Amino acid sequence: MPTEERYVVLDQPPRRLSAILLRWEVILVILLMLTVVVNAIVSPYFLDVYNLADATSNFSEKAIIALAMALLILVRDIDLSVAAIIALAAMAIGYAADAGFGAPVLFAVGIGVGLLCGIFNGFLVTYIRLPSIVVTIGTMSLFRGLTQVILGDQALTHYPQGFLNLGQNYFIPFVKTDIPWLFVPPVPLSFLIFLVLAAIFGIVLHKTAVGRQLFAIGSNPVAARFSGIPVDRLRFILFVLSGALSGLAGALLAARLGSMRSNIAFGWELDIVTMVILGGVSIAGGIGSILGVFLAVLVLGLVTFGMSLNNIPGQVVSVYTGALLIAVIAIPRIFERIRPGGG
Amino acid sequence: MSAVLKSREFILAVALAVAVVVIGIYQPVFVEWENLSDMLTETSVLFMMAMAQMVVILTRGIDLSVAANLALSGFLAALVSQYYPGLPLVLMILVAILSGLVFGMVNGALVAVLGIPSIVVTLGTLAVYRGMIIIIAGGDQVNASEMGVSFQAFPKDSFLGLTTPIWITIVVAILFWVFLNFTRTGRGFYAVGGNPVAARYCGIDQGKQEFLAYSISGAVSGLCGYLWVARYGIAYSEIASGYELTVIAACVIGGVSIGGGVGTVAGALLGALFLGIVNTALPVLQITPFWQMAISGAVILAAVVINARAERSPDKLILPEARRLGRARP
What is the mean pLDDT of chain A? Predict the structure, then answer.
């Protein structure tokens, strides 16, 4: 090997068909199509616009948080306190509702509480320099614990009707036209917010300098810092973002359920991390796409919905999603082992 | 000597002793042997799970599936007790330990052989193991009346003044202590977690160490599954839900570094003891148990802040990130 090759920067390698087919997003698209086809064959109720619209509201709150979680995992961090922030935010909203505030203020309260929690997380991780997984396990207990201390075994149920309508009605109503295939589907507010946020996140991550900086931090934080990227500031912003979106999700969830207890959204943090990892974001940092997360959200959401249509209990569904998570990551690795030099 | 006095375990032990004495002054009932014995029995599962989790964390991994494994193994043991009540108790406990071991080996194989990040693997198996309980039982649960009498009596028995869970904890703790401190394989966990590259140059097989760590974690979860199910007299899919994070919290409080390579048996035990004391002291002090979670959260945060200060080395680096990342790469 001649030494000058060290300084030759290779062009992008030629695209091979197998490389395109093995791309994560393509695998997810195939999974998504499989899910839709199998479910449509098994249950006649699957391809019903209203059913599908209701199905989206079951996963949209998690999906909104998954967008922020994807960026955090991309930069080698994680936020396990998101579900606890939902609880704290939903409780604050409940008390604000008791005080007689309307829907806009309630949403602002939820996002504000989440924002404060995110600032606290971000401060501990970037300023005190603690590992994020430990910090957010701690704040998870702390936030959920505060909810339990304040609320005890009570439930908050007095939300104003205008607030509940946002969570329980379709934000965009079903509009039919004379042409059977041309229609506007009913869209719940939470799913609409998820779609808009996914588009914004996708553009920021994949088309702007800030997005490239996040990839750089995830690939090599030290090199990123040396090249002038404000690593800690960006990580801090991501924690604040994750907190704020958790607060927003808390507001949407409270509006959808119409009540909250201290165990609201218990265990969601792991569901959300599952969405992100299935979406192809590498836990080691530096690899991932919003499109992948978006597709993974749809796959997981539709698998869950399809199984619930067939009266399969939630925990059995989680067997399939857990196995799916491992299989999707294990199978390409097994292929790489069988075919040395490829992959 | 001064090294012992300055060690994190010693400081934590003193803090716990002070806490027990102070609570004892307010409520003498707290330091009565009966209450302390109850607390240790209640915490025995956490003691053992924390030590096993520590071995995994030492290798820079994490095992989120322990609570699900506990529930599934305990459930299998309870089923055996229900359908084969004539079998000797030892066999039923072995069923729990072996099934736990197998589930742990599945994790170990996925992590060590395929090289999938441990958080991904155990997040997946967490869901699978818990769901398998529903699939096996079809949503049924095993109640106290359906389990064998000796099956349930064993964790409530006493021997030489200590309950059997406490004895089991003592034996397991001694085994862990000897294994981690005086055997080549045990030291290997520290080597792999402390510096994987150097460990490899020393001829330590990282994959083998990781596989072993998850297997140990699984076997201990299985044993604890039996103890849990037999003690509380019920086996169903929601047992110990969310307990994995309590176990990890015990490790963190005990000074086990999530970055790998740092942690002692004494530390893990003290971390678990801390959570045990908080849980028992609150009702004695007539504080609502709803404070439990908030207090452990605050303590976890305090513990990591203190540990981070203690670990900060005096050398100077141009970039603090470099040092932190060198130490705490997941």
Answer: 88
**Residues near B207 by beta carbon (within 8 Å), at least 6 away in sequence:** B112, B113
| B120/A326 CB distance under 8 A | yes
Nearest by CB to B128, from A129, A133, A319: name it: A319
Cβ within 8 Å, pair A137-B291: no
In chain B, the number of structural domains is 1
Please give the residue range of the domain that contains residue A159: 61-265
> CB–CB of A273 and B123 under 8 A?
yes
For residue A125, give the DSSP letter: I
CA distance B223 to B77: 10
Q: Cα separation of B272 and B266, whole Å?
A: 10
Single out the residue of B248, B29, B71, B220 nearest to residue A137, CA to CA: B248
Instruction: Tell me the three state secondary structure of residue B99.
Output: helix
| Domain count across chain A | 1
Using one digit for the tens of pLDDT, what is the confidence trace for A245-290? Answer: 999 999 999 999 998 988 898 888 888 998 998 998 988 888 999 9
CATH number for the domain that contains residue B29? 1.10.3470
Distance in Å from the first CA to the final CA of chain A: 24
* Residue A283: inside a domain: no
* CB burial readout B82-106, b (16+ within 10 A) else e: beeeeeeeeebbbbbbbbbbebbbb
